[in-house]
Design a protein that fits this description.
Blueprint: H1 3-17, E1 21-32, E2 35-46, E3 50-54, H2 61-69, E4 76-81, E5 91-94, H3 106-113, H4 117-126, H5 130-135, H6 143-155, E6 161-165, H7 173-188, E7 192-196, H8 200-206, E8 209-214, E9 217-223, E10 235-240, H9 246-250, E11 255-262, E12 265-270, H10 276-285, E13 290-296, H11 298-319
Parallel strand pairs: 3-7, 3-8, 5-6, 6-7
Antiparallel strand pairs: 1-2, 1-4, 8-9, 10-12, 10-13, 11-12
Protein name: ABC transporter ATP-binding protein
Pfam family, one: ABC_tran
Organism: Lysinibacillus agricola
């Protein structure tokens, strides 16, 4: 079995077997000027969880993160964040980079705002452009450079829970990739994340759970484990002309995971893109007659589901 498969299975076991709860939110509510912004929010996160919070503008994402960070008070509900491991900094948060000191350099901001400047310098170096960011005054930095600086300070705190609001805004492709790796590294060491984002590709790469928020309520949650692997493993939905046994598929070494949808429909996770055709040929050699063979992109399914769901909610609301 190849190294990527072994690594991914180990990651999956960590996520599925861990029971150390980091965050528990119950019946959270918030109003602004008699307008309900959040209603009956219930959410729990364990160590290692990377939770994507997805919603259209005005759905309540930033308000929820602001309450969890302590910047805004809720009207009702309870929030418990585990402080047993890291009492000094139970949470770290990065919203839009407006809280930096504009007339100080990036280095001065780190030294003033980060409890562990050496961690912040290391993270900033991984996010690129560290020399320019450290030497210039913040007011002269681009939005993307300010974003890197704010993220470096937030992620340097060695917290149990990190709250990131649109963290990839202003970042180039290479920096986004590096940020994903940083998040995955920190999650593997036991921290939990909530990431509010519209970037479905980023969600696929680093999140194991997805919450869809609409009109101030988390209406649906999904297990998106496909995103936490070191590689995005291809998923195939296969329909056969005749019923087959699961064991016939599982004996193929390049099949990472096999899920039975019914006795003739299967969802296969393949070890690599290069192995997809090989798996198909081996199935045919086993006299398994394939009627359908569809490549499934999880990120497309999630986005289509959310868009369709929001559309149906709007139609229902207009009919009330």
């Amino acid at each position: 079995m190849n190294e990527h498969i072994l690594e991914t299975r180990q990651l999956k076991e960590n996520y599925q077997t861990n029971n150390e709860q980091i965050l528990k939110v119950e019946s959270l509510k918030k109003k602004y000027h008699n307008q309900t912004v959040l209603q009956n929010i219930n959410l729990s996160l364990n160590a290692h969880d990377v939770y994507a919070l997805v919603g259209i503008n005005g759905s309540g994402k930033t308000t929820l993160l602001s309450i969890l960070s302590g910047l805004v008070h809720s009207d009702e509900g309870t929030i418990h964040i585990d402080k047993k491991i890291k009492k000094e900094n139970p949470t770290g948060f990065a919203f839009q980079p407006t809280s930096l000191y504009p007339y100080l350099s990036g280095k001065d901001n780190i030294d003033l705002l980060s409890p562990r400047p050496s961690n912040a310098y290391e993270i900033l170096n991984r996010l690129n452009q560290s020399e320019k960011i450290l030497s210039k005054k913040v007011k002269k930095l681009s939005f993307g450079q300010k974003q890197r600086l704010g993220l470096s300070i937030a992620l340097s705190k060695e917290a149990n829970l990190y709250l990131l609001d649109e963290p990839t805004n202003g970042l180039d492709v290479a920096s986004c990739k590096n940020l994903v790796e940083i998040i995955k590294d920190m999650a593997s060491n036991g921290s939990a994340f909530i990431i509010a984002s519209h970037e479905w590709d980023i969600i696929e790469q680093c999140c194991n759970r997805l919450g869809m928020i609409y009109n101030g309520t988390i209406r649906k949650e999904l297990d998106t484990f496909q995103g936490i692997s070191e590689v995005n493993l291809p998923i195939i939905q296969m329909k056969t002309l005749n019923p087959i046994r699961k064991e016939e598929i599982e004996t193929i070494v390049d099949v990472f995971e096999c899920v039975e949808l019914d006795d003739q429909t299967w969802r296969l996770t393949i070890s690599s893109e290069q192995s997809v055709q090989t798996v198909q040929q081996l199935l045919i050699m086993k006299n398994i007659l394939i009627q359908e063979w569809i490549n499934i992109k999880p990120v497309q399914e999630w986005e289509n589901l959310y868009n369709q769901w929001v559309k149906e909610e709007d139609i229902n609301a207009r009919n009330i």
